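Example 3.2
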Amino acid sequence: MEKENHEIWREGVDIKKYPITVLPKETEVLIVGGGMAGITNAYLLSKIGKKVILLEKETLGGHVTSRTTGFLTPVIDTDPLKLIKQFGFENAKLILESHRNAVDEVEKIINTEKIECEFERCTNFIYANSESEEKYLIKLAEGYKKLGISAEFKKDNNLKFSKFGYIEMPNHAKFHAIKYLTELAKIAVKNGVIIAENTEVLNLNDKKDFVEVEIENTEVIKAKKVISATYVPFGQNKKISHLANLYREYVIEYKVHHGELLNGTYEDTLDPYNYFRIDNKGGFDRLIIGGADHLDVMKVDPNINFDSMIKYSQKLFGSVKLEEVRHWSGLMLETNDGLAFIGDYNHGNIFYIFGFSGNGMTYSYIAGKIFLDKILSVENPYSEVYRVIRKVSWLKRLFYIK
């Protein structure tokens, strides 16, 4: 198998470079990490005139964001029944509401700033691979409805690749993550944000009234607040470092004949589950499919996982001709209770953002809005459920049965 190629979102995009510059010795907010979460925070803070410095060890969007499949979904990997069991009905409703609002707000930003990033509202389909899964899908649809998410179980010939039932969920979305991130960064810089790529942060020292940020060449920047927005958070407190595990996922891009599969996003209910998106590209359609997740500490031959994805795709789509364009793997940080951690630790000056699982595109906005409201001393309805110091319902998660 050929070498991995994750350049799908960077090809043909005019990506501005942000070389190392002379940095101020003090700032109001310093952001560590130039992925979707870091750039979203920088943009939102720039809109209220805050002095912000963003430091990226390599290049903007060059790590996890460049390997995304670009789903914008109001639901998360944890199914609604498990969500209610773990967190209670009201909190479960808040969680999904936060993601639904995030999709809406990202769309507003795109429209307001006139960002061309292939944003498209679409239908999400959750499909069954067997008759036994159909029964589960009926319960799943009812769970989503209870939590305010539109979901209808159907069994017809609408999905040509499956003879089993499926859930139809409108008002999901998909976009080109790097085009969005690139334009958001340009706007933030116009608003006064300082971005420096290829600048490594070495250490964070919380001094109660401010944070000393040690960077390369023994420089130190004094920041009132720091946002740790690297995917595996930099400078995270040892007391919270055990709360998430790193997984690796495998993705293949195919070219298929136009109209063979419905435009939209898809997922099944297997464990690990599979997911894909169909994009109309003019003379052909693009299929991006991912799955075969495993703990990253398990060092396995990636060809085995890509082969399993190929076999799954061939079996699922049957007579549909699949022409592989490229394949790649990416990392996914899964927390022990399935929710991201967003907030400070013990009222400190370092704001942590980590554990996005498969929902980084919406969590990035949620985290940005929570931090923005904190800076403005405004109550945020979602800050409590995502807070860093919370009880993890181990038993409820461990013994949940579909």
